[in-house]
Amino acid sequence: MRRTILMLLVASALPAPVQADRGAITVEAGPNLTWWPRMPPAVGSGRGVSGTAGGGQLSLRYGLRNDFDLTASGFYDTEAPYSHTGVTVKAGGGSFAGTLASRTTRWGAAVGGRYVKGLVLRFFVGGEVGWSQQRSTRLDLINVSDPANPHSYGLGLADRSQGALLLTPLAGVEWQVTDRWSVSLAPRLQIQIGDAGRVAVSLPLSVGYSWYGW
Predict the structure, then answer these.
(1) pLDDT at 1
(2) Rounded to two decimals, what is the model's pTM?
(3) Which end of the chain is more exposed for a tag (fewer CB within 10 A), N or C?
(4) Cβ 207 vs Cβ 183: under 8 Å
């Protein structure tokens, strides 16, 4: 009797059994943190600055095989302030130097695939390709030649929207909490090619729910 009770207690402490993912459709959503090692100014020429932006990510994946998923994802970075020093802007036939203040937001979508290994604790590596759109607003070049009296040049700089091809290698780990619920951390390198050419590191933490038998 004691042995039976002990076996029941051990079984109840173990995680619920999980199915293999072939034919499964999973929807994931959660917060996302983006880090820019070197974001260039939206207008003019000057040095890039490091910065972060919060946001969210929504993903969909389909288990083509037990070890390979087709993926699709979309993300949104909320508006964040940036300040670039030593920026030179040409406007109205003149050249102006100072500190560029701006607020930037970004969104995008991509599709791809990933290889998966494991059952309860699952490790994966893969990549996606897509498009990202970045919008910079409230652009203002500040004259800082007199540190005691910084003031705007009043150039009336227009908002700027930039698009870019997005290449996203990724790797991460997923914990299959139950047969349907999962939690994953999937760091990814976002390489933008185009007008908004730059590199960012994205850290999405997601909760997923799966449907089987498709």
Answers:
(1) 52
(2) 0.80
(3) N
(4) yes
